[in-house]
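Give me the fold.
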Amino acid sequence: MNDLSDPYELSGGVPSIEVFRRLRTDAGLSDKTPEAVALALPNTWHGVVLHHEGEPIGMGRVIGDGGTAFQIVDVCVHPAHQQRGLGKRIMAALTEELERRAPATAYVSLIADGPARFLYERFGFADTAAHESIGMYRVMGGGPGASGPRAEP
């Protein structure tokens, strides 16, 4: 049930390339090139955009193969609207869709930055280290996590 006085509206889908980039950087996440975003957004398995009085102020996406592996990414809310339960609203929509459509044996992962881990724990996510796993990453093209052949001395 929607509260008519609620100025926030959550809808399914993904934002435009420009809005995606703005939402990420406004929330303190890294920017992505327009070319990378143009490739990524159409491959979203499920996405949501949160609007405040018609203006996009938050989003979240689920990506994956549709059967065995999914990842929750790009969960963010503009700083002016944080601490109002809006991240919880985004996560609820994403996890509800996963529960509705993903197979029971699907593995769903995410990267929890800072205190966001407490939000994700509310939705059943657990630290992988407690299960003798560690999260690993690689950034293509340089920076932390980049890899490539080491120069021999």
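Residues 8 and 55 are 9 Å apart (CA to CA).
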